[in-house]
Structure formats: structure tokens, C-alpha cells
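Consider this:
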Amino acid sequence: MNLVRRIKQYLKAIRACVSEEDYKFLLRVLSKKELSYFNRFPDFEKRHALDVCYYIIDKYGIEDEDLIKAALFHDIGKTEAKITPNKKAIAVILEKIPFIANFLRGYFFFLEVYYNHPKYSAKICREMGLSERVVYLVEHHHDFETLDEDVKKLQEADKKS
């Protein structure tokens, strides 16, 4: 089942686009500086970030500024290595073979970034001047032992998107 989900994710990524309505939403919730950072994403990551954000708004009726920005920037660290859908597919496959993944991450920077993107994302969020709450949510969005309800909402939306 996970394989089917990952294949669908890949196909969605290679066809991803961002609409005019999406940009209107972004202009409403992001500053010019934040939008310039958001535009560093390739289209497939923009689409994913927006889908995570919309999921949270639709499911929880929440328009909390920190949670919205955490949803939009939770994967911004991946821009450090220009992770494409093909590189992501390689990283996902290698996750199933941890000893090889750990060995190769020393040779391929994109693997290091992919596996540690919450840390890279938090660093960029801090550079952008986002709140410490946003930085915390982003840094912990793969911490599955968290008790923080907003982190859990972000994780749920991330998984569903």
C-alpha cells in the first residue's frame, strides 16, 4: 500500500502546478520576503506545501499564522540540495535499506538534506525571521513522539498531501 501511495505521489509531483488562486492566497498570508523564499521551491514542492496548508485550514478551520507558515515552509530545507522528484524517489527507496542510505549520504548531499530536511528547514525559517514557534513546528514535523498538537496536525496534513 505504501508503494502505491509513493507512486501516486511521484506522478502528482511531476505534473504539479500552482494556480493563480494559490498565488492570491500566498499574497494574503506571506510577506514579500517570505514569498521570495517560497518561490525557491520547485513547482511540485510548492503544490505540496499549499496542499498541506489547505488541509489544515479545511480540516481544522484554523488560520493560525504560525501553523500556516509552518505548513508552507516545512520542507524549505530541501531547496538546499535542489531535490527533484527523481532524487526524492531514490531517497525514499534507500530509506528501506538504512545502512546503504547512511553510507551514501556521505557522498550525495541531496540524501543528507532529504533525510535531515527538518533541521535545514528550521535553519532557513530562522534566517527568514519567522517566529520561534514556526521554527519549532518545522524542526519537529518528523518527530513522531511529540505531544504538541500543532506538530501532530502538521504531520497529519503532510502525510495526507
